[in-house]
Amino acid sequence: MATKYSPLSFTVFSSLLLILLATTSSTAQAIKAAHGFSSIKEATVHDIQLTFKQNQLSSRKLVELYLKQISRLNPVLKGVLEVNPDALYQADKADHERNSKAPGSLSPLHGIPILLKDNIATKDKLNSTAGSYALLGSVVPRDAGVVTKLRKAGVIILGKATLSEWSSYRSNGAPSGWSARGGQGKSPYTMGDPCGSSSGPAISVAANMAAVSLGTETDGSILCPSSNNLVVGIKPTVGLTSRAGVIPISPRQDTVGPICRTVADAVYVLDAIVGIDHYDNATIEISQYIPKGGYAQFLKADGLQAKRVGIVRDPFYNFGNDTIATRTVEQHLKTLRKQGTILVDNLKLANLVEIYRSSDEGTALAAEFKIYMNAYLKELVASPVRSLADLIAFNKKNSKLEMLEEYGQDQFVEAEATNGIGNAEKAALANLAKLTREGFVKLMTKNKLDALVTPGSSVSHILAIGGFPGVIVPAGYDSDGVPFGLSFGGLKGSEPKLIEIAYGFEQATKIRKPPKFKI
C-alpha cells in the first residue's frame, strides 16, 4: 500500500561491502564467449535469448545459475521467499520447445525465469501468502490472470519474492520489506531499507537472483523499491494488467507491473501480461489503451525528442542539504534538454498540499480492503482463514509467529471496523476524484505534457489516487549512497510515451550498476 518514505533518501548506511557475483561455471564461460561478460550478472532478456539462439546456454543452466545465486545471497538479502520445486522441469520443457519449434515463433520471454511477488497467486506447488503464516497451505482456485499470460509466453516461474507483509497493509508500525514468513529484506546497495511493498522483486533483480520480476502497487509499492534498489519499475494504468488472483487492497488503485534491470526487459514483461481477463472486468475497458503491435515498438533511443515534460519543483526537488542529489538531478535535466526534450519548468500543482494532507485515501482503502479481502479469502479452495476477522484472530492466536507484539495489526483492526461503502467513504471517493481532476489532470492537459518528471518515488500518491501510470529509471545516489530513480508519470494509457521517455533517458545516461558487496 502506501509506502513509508521520505522523498528521496531512506536509510543511512554504515558501509558498503565490496564486489561479488562472479561465477566460474562452464555456462558462464559460454556466455562470456558470446557476449563478453563473465556471469549472469546484469544479463538482459535480449542477451539471454541470443545465447539460447547460439546454443551457448539452456534454460536449465540459466535456472541453475540463478538458484546458485539465491542460495548464496538470499540468506542475507531475503529477497526470495520460496523457490519453485518445478523450476527445472519448466526449464527442460522450455529447452525442448525451443529445439522443436520454428525460429521466431516463441515470445521474447520464452525460457526466461521470473520471480513473482508473494501476493500473486499460482496454482502449483508454491504458496501464495502475502508473506503471512495465515495463508500458508491455502489453495487458490486458479493462477492469477497475469500468471496465466506469463505461462502462455513460456516464462519459467522461478519462485515467489518477499514483500512487506500484506503489501504494507497490516500495521503502520511494520518496517518496509518485512514479513513474518520472509523476515527483513535488505537493499543490496545499502544493506538497509529496500522500501516496499514489492521489496523482494526489486532486491532480487538488483542482486541478479532472477532475470526479471513482477510486483504490485497500490501506492508507491513498485516505484519506491525500484528507486531504492536502482532498478526499473513500471506501474501500469490501473486495469491495464489483471488483478484477478492477486491478494487485494483495492481494485481502484491496485495494479501489477514489472520490476527489472532495464527498461527493455520491463517492457517485454509488460507486453506479456497486459490485456483482457474476464476475471477482472476493468481490463475490458482499459484494453482500449493497448497499442496495436504492443509496447516494445516504443523502445526508441531518440524517444526524448520533442516530448513535453513538466517539472514541479516544490516539493519534489527539495533535497535539503544534499548537494550530490541536487547536482545529479540537475545534470539529468540538462541531459533531457540536450536530447530534445521540452522541459516545462517551475509548474505549480494547485492542490498539491491538499492532496498530501487529505485522509481520504486512507478512509476509502480501509473499507475497500475489508470488502475485497473477504471476497478473496472466501474464494480460496482451502484456507485456514476465510475473512478479515479470521486474520485478526489468527494473528492474536499466533502473536509471536506474526511478531504482533512488535508491529501490531492496527490497519487490519481499522478496516474490520468499517461497514461497506457508506456516506463517509462516498465523500472520500468523490473528493479523491475531484483532487485528481483539478490537480494532476489539469496540470497535464493545460500544459500539454507528455509526462511529469520527479526524483525518487514521492509522486506515487498522486499517480495512485488517479490510477495513473508511472515508470522509474535508475538515476544515481544521494549523499548517503542510497540509490534513487527518476520517475516519469502520465495520464491513463500514456505508457507508450512514458516508455519512449524512460528508454531514451536510460540510453542517454546508463546509470544502472550492479551492487558491490561480499557475502
Protein described:
The chain is 40% helix and 12% strand. Residues 2-38 have low confidence and may be disordered. It has one domain (26-509): Amidase signature (AS) domain (Amidase signature (AS) enzymes, Alpha-Beta Complex), CATH 3.90.1300. The strands form two sheets. The protein has an eleven-stranded mixed sheet, sandwiched between helices. The protein has a two-stranded antiparallel ribbon with strand order 4-5. It is built from 20 helices and 13 strands. The radius of gyration is 21 Å and the shape is globular. It is α/β, with parallel strands linked by helices. This is Amidase domain-containing protein. Keywords: Signal. Residues 1-30 form the signal peptide. Residues 62-456 form the Amidase domain. InterPro entries: Amidase_dom (IPR023631), AS_sf (IPR036928).
